[in-house]
Amino acid sequence: MPAIESTKILKQALTGYFQSFFDETVPRQKVAWCTSVGPSEILTAMGFKVYYPENHGALLGASRASEQYIPVANAAGYSPDICSYLTADIGAFKKGETPLTKAYGIPSVPKPDVLIYNTNQCREVQDWFAYYAKEFGVPSLGVFSPWKVDDLNEDQISYVAKQMQSLIPPLEKISGNKFDIDRLREVVALTKQTSDLWSEFLGLATARPSPITFFDGCIQMASAVVLRGLPVAVDYYRQLNAEIKKRVAAKTGAVPKETTRLYWDGMPMWGKLRFFSDLFERLDTCVVASTYCDSWIFADFDPADPFRSMAKAYTKIFINRSETHKEKVLIEMAGKYGVDGMIFHDAKTCPHNSNSRFGMPQRITKATGIPNLILDGDVNDLRCISEEQIITAAESFIEQLTHVPRNARA
Ligand code: SF4
């Protein structure tokens, strides 16, 4: 698989960002920790530097360091059954270690002045941040979103928008900065541009052969998560998309002999990205799209109406939708990307982003004729992942897809 050249620029941008938390040549900016789909634009607009513990969780998983830290959190009373981002992150903190040192040359995670979470994704984030609020002696403030929404109504948007607005007075006090609505509009506009470019990047996988895989998306999304609301994210995706469009024009596939296309639902298995990437390439199969990477597309962001548009976009994220809505999205995505099969990752410690537990794969297969494969695994806990079982299951699934024509499947 050809390497994406722009990734070097991404690494530089992330290094610059993480090192800036420790830059002693400029006055220290206050630091806010924020959930990955929390209202970070408010924080950026108010002069905080924003750090995302879930990004740290993913890095712990991708670097396979989580294995040594999850048991530390388990021993402290955090169950092996709860979010393994949380347990890996708290375990690493308890040991005073971080993969950020090796990746970006910083001595530790940056110390927070405030913690901001949004329950739009799961309740775990509230308990996760409560741990750090106690450790650092700083406030943890939450936005409580309506859960599992179907069509979002105006009352629900107002409910969330008001909570976002109510963060302003305490954040003014902590940051020492006065809130400026025009600055928020600028940041929201930057996130919107980032989101549009990120959406464009992911959409390039509709090409045949696809120039990118889901596993590329898992790397490239770092900018949409960590750098959104900053000009550097916009610049990065412009450059990245220009590179990938050249691949489309040259018909260069991420998988050289792409014959089968898959959709991935649910979380990545961070410690196994390379394993999956190699496995599917060997099977001439490209995982072209996912609901996970799409989660940082915030099409509703509107600088003219920053609070309500943020409330709408952040409450409408896929993980927070009803089963009925999710099914509609998956069927639409399967058609858009022309997939032959769908993989559902049943992540042991993330029930919130595992959509195979209430009959959804079966309903989608019945409606579309597109076969599905459910893989047991986890986001970070490698003890829940069996490479042997996955290889056997994936090989027979691809065999089935290759030899049974679509119109004979339903
Ligand atoms: S959505 Fe899943 S992986 Fe993410 S913080 Fe919640 S439980 Fe953990």
Shape: globular
Main sheet overview: 4 strands, parallel
DSSP helical segment count: 19
Spatial strand sequence of the major β-sheet: 2-1-3-4
In the CATH classification, which architecture of the largest domain applies?
3-Layer(aba) Sandwich
How many individual domains? 2
Spans with pLDDT under 50 lasting ≥5 residues? none
**What structural class do helix, strand and pairing data support?**
alpha/beta
Report the helical percentage: 40-55%
Distance between the termini: 33 Å
Number of strands: 8
CATH fold group of the largest domain: Rossmann fold
User: Helices and strands, in N-to-C order?
Assistant: HEHEHHHHEHEHHHHHHEHEHHHEHEH
| Mean pLDDT over the full residue set | 97
Class of the largest domain in CATH? Alpha Beta
Task: Give a verbal description of the structure.
- With 410 residues, the protein is of the alpha/beta class.
- It folds into two domains: 7-183, Rossmann fold, CATH 3.40.50; 193-408, Rossmann fold (3-Layer(aba) Sandwich), CATH 3.40.50.11900.
- The protein has 19 helices and eight strands.
- The strands form two sheets. It has a four-stranded parallel sheet with strand order 2-1-3-4. It has a four-stranded parallel sheet with strand order 6-5-7-8, with helices on both faces.
- α3 crosses α5 and α4 (66-75) packs across α5.
- The longest helix has 23 residues, at 181-203.
- 48% of the residues are buried.
- Iron/sulfur cluster binds next to α5 and α7.
- Iron/sulfur cluster binds at residues 54, 83, 85-86, 121-122, 124-125, 267, 350, 352-353, 379.
